[in-house]
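Question (not urgent): is this output format expected?
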Amino acid sequence: MSDDGFHVHGPHDHALEHVAEHAAHGNDEFSGKIAVMTAILATVGAMFGYQGGATQNDAALFKNNAAIAKTEAANRWNYYQAKSNKQNLAELAVTLPGVDTEKYKADVARYKTEKDGIKKEAEKWEASSAEWNHKSDEAMHEHHQWALATTAEQIAISLAAITLLTKKTWLQYMAYAVAGAGIALGALAWLQIDPIGAMLLKLGAGGHH
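Got this back:
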């Protein structure tokens, strides 16, 4: 803890520190390459992490908008029900002897017209709520894609640290492969392409035949 508050380490911060220290004390070309690669991966991972946080915030905002719209729809439906009750009473009054039937018939017609307008408003708010929920689901799914890409970069950084310790070339190539997979996942998230989701949707559609 510093005087300014707590400093929370990320899951790959120690690996980054180890790579930096090792590269500083080592002069060989191999260590230098790994250090450069790690710095690049850390930058890419930070960008992915930022995008993941942004999409998560969007999902929460959209979900909140959906809840607001749902509440407005419920209020309209309650108002609709109140008008229906008044219409029913007016219809009942028409059948009673000694009352001004024309007045109550006019009330019935007025309540019916008012109900139609209220119903349209309620349906409009319900549609808005459904749309916001859909946007929230999409944003949350995109967040998961960014999270996977970030995790891949963190794993690649950890593999780079192990590579420096062991000097194993195959670990270096594995770090490259994982980093490449993370970048590919990030590119798909950026382009809003979800091959896994599309495949599952296709399989689900095929199962209904």
